Amino acid sequence: MGSIETKFEKLATDNAPGQETRQKAGTIETLLCGDSIAGTPVDFSHGDVDAFAPAPGSFEAFAAGVERGGRQAYTEYRGSLEIRTALAGRLADFTGAAVSADDGLIITPGTQGALFLAIASTISAGDKVAVVQPDYFANRKLVQFFDGEIVPVKLDYLDTRERAGLDLAALEDVFKAGAKVFVFSNPNNPAGVVYSRQEIETIARLAEHHGATVVVDELYSRLLYDKSPYTHLRATDIDPERVVTIIGPSKTESLSGYRLGTAFGSTRIVGRMEKLQAIVSLRAPGYSQAVLNTWFAEPAGWLSGRIAAHQAIRDDLLSKLAAVEGLRARKPEAGSYLFPRLPELAVSTQDFVRILRRQAAVTVTPGAEFGPHSTDSLRLNFSQDHKAAADAIGRLVELIGRYR
Amino acid sequence: MGSIETKFEKLATDNAPGQETRQKAGTIETLLCGDSIAGTPVDFSHGDVDAFAPAPGSFEAFAAGVERGGRQAYTEYRGSLEIRTALAGRLADFTGAAVSADDGLIITPGTQGALFLAIASTISAGDKVAVVQPDYFANRKLVQFFDGEIVPVKLDYLDTRERAGLDLAALEDVFKAGAKVFVFSNPNNPAGVVYSRQEIETIARLAEHHGATVVVDELYSRLLYDKSPYTHLRATDIDPERVVTIIGPSKTESLSGYRLGTAFGSTRIVGRMEKLQAIVSLRAPGYSQAVLNTWFAEPAGWLSGRIAAHQAIRDDLLSKLAAVEGLRARKPEAGSYLFPRLPELAVSTQDFVRILRRQAAVTVTPGAEFGPHSTDSLRLNFSQDHKAAADAIGRLVELIGRYR
Known about the structure:
Two copies of one chain form a homodimer.
Chain A: H1 2-9, E1 42-43, H2 58-68, H3 70-73, H4 81-95, E2 105-108, H5 110-120, E3 128-133, H6 137-145, E4 149-154, H7 168-176, E5 181-185, H8 197-210, E6 213-217, E7 243-247, E8 261-265, H9 267-280, H10 286-289, H11 302-322, E9 337-338, H12 349-360, E10 362-363, E11 365-366, E12 378-381, H13 386-402
Parallel strand pairs in A: 1-10, 3-4, 3-5, 5-6, 6-7
Antiparallel strand pairs in A: 2-8, 7-8, 9-12, 11-12
């Protein structure tokens, strides 16, 4: 059983967002300095759906799904045809390229489900897979789980402006070296940066030239600040069969509790994803699927209001962090993550994260989850109650001072 | 990409229950004989949750989950501790052995999700896995997907009474030959037979002796007819760390639309399952988890009423099938499947299934899905409107006569 044990060790979730409650009392006692700081606990590891409520009409749409009965409970594995049909048009409008409701779209349990199925449907053991550093931690774990070989490509988000900062020359080298799949998130999770048109077009050209498949996680692509320009990879000249695009309503729309996501594009890959979904979880929750009827169909003004509220929090937290000497943070152009790099501390980042939770009731995700170059960074999901988040950043700043 | 294509070909879902709507018009035109027979369409590929409604209080429990907000939307990957705690006691009472809410129980998206995670967490490429024939089709597909080697063990359900009919000598040989995992459903899906105490105790003894892990799918173990005796494997002398038990509320309780299942037992395997769930779908749908508060806590009399209603349908359909010369069917002791073996027909079973759908609006699942010895059988889920099901069986009987 050696091999399977090693495999699951790589899937460690001890520091994953939301799992902090499972951490055993550690060895930080001897490191503690000073008293705890009182304040409303804030869990920056994920968004607070109590502060930003689920999009309007979601529960009513669910209730209508239950009312619809068996037809809604037992859909095709890829999801209800009726819902896929309504959604295909909206997703095509949003991304700027056609979506086939019949063969090119699958509804999944969250975008996590979509990502799992997409990776499982594109890579075989030993395949080289290009993965961005830093990027969403599950990308790395998924490639490892299916015995793919990770080939890292660095994102220099901190020292770049006007574009995300992907090392395009390195990406070309990686394709030349035989990588057949490229997986990345745009906007980038954790850095919140958006790939420029030139970056996306270069990715398209390189993938096309080297015959690679691209899985692009666009989970946060609706939450764009300052009308940031955004280029959907699928709307470029790339062969549509080379691209799977993933997006879902768990973040901007706060619908995570319903477990919904979608993947669309390549009919070949979507076909495989459905076959796999049949043995993974059968289908996205039947009644929940009905909630997608509200998606991309929210009341006028709802999305812009939500963006404005997040932008105000972003700016407030960033201004507080700017006061910390030696801390570096690029202003995110999209999404609800901040990814500041800490100044040098007297304790490890790992220990600081635990101290922060213990002494300040502030939960964050350590940067090491996202790649080996981010061990001194923290990810904070700022989709929170504004005042509570601002106060929590105050406590974070105080503890950075204390543990320098 | 040769290897991944082969891998996904083995996952074919064309004849899987619920996927019939995706079948292209086939070549059955030339085979058709006589006119169509009018009647209410019945889809025996799964239960009809409009005929047998979701268990009482399920929607209200879901609504309470939504009301609870973020705490319910973002649970631990293994599911809400509060709900696991309530559930652990009830599952322990039901199965006759302790369940650890903290380390030995995971909530999954359906029992399909539990089965996927359990198989993925116990087998490595090349491992020999004992699989019953016939048994739930996903067992075979899951082992194949993870590159395990299937070692079949025959269930002689048709010519056996008083026990399920597992070839225990063959099981012993398979363990001796190195099988490290045994996966089976009890009651058996598709045959509806229950393993006797002697069969379960022999499985326990053999697994213990040969150091094997057992994954037992007890999805239908609440729907027992005539107070049929039932032995939970986990309540035998077997080392609890060797067993994962799977059960969920999708069938008897008609809660499939909420996508809920549980797996419990081995803390080592449940730990792995959670790590994997983190990258497969994060967690069972958060709000849905709250529906489990109603599970094993239904109003007095509800379960016995549901059993009685199913038993009446079972007996009615079986008496109609008994009139067909050459057709063989064992009376199921549990669950809601009939698995009759057809007499010899002039068309293949595969074609007959399509003809049945075309000419009689009756959807069934071909026996070939469940194993190579069942190609002349059909699986019918009789959790249907009683009258519609009885009429549909009348049309089935008529078409058997027509296509002999």
